[in-house]
Amino acid sequence: MSNRPFDLLNEALNKEVLIVLKGNQHVRGTLRAFDMHMNLNLDDASQIVDGEMKTKFGRLLIRGDSVIMLSP
Q1: How far does the chain reach from its first CA to its final CA, in angstroms?
Q2: Does CATH number 3.40.50.300 belong to domain 5-71?
Q3: Which residue has the higher pLDDT, 67 or 5?
Q4: Alpha-carbon distance 42 to 63, whole Å?
Q5: Which pTM does this prediction carry?
C-alpha cells in the first residue's frame, strides 16, 4: 500500500497510466520515469479523446506542473 504520493508513482513504473492534463487533455502511455517535480516520461503515449485514441506520440515527456491527475 502507498504511504506517500511518490510511492504510487514507483508502483506504476513500467505500467500503463492515464494522465489528465490542464486544459482537459488526456494521455495514456507506459510510465518509464519521473522526477521530484513530477515530470513524467512515457513510452507508447497517445492522446485520448472521448475514450478513443486520437493522436499517437510514441515517447513523450510531460512537465509536472501540467499534470492534474495520474491513474495507474
Answers
A1: 13
A2: no
A3: 67
A4: 11
A5: 0.89
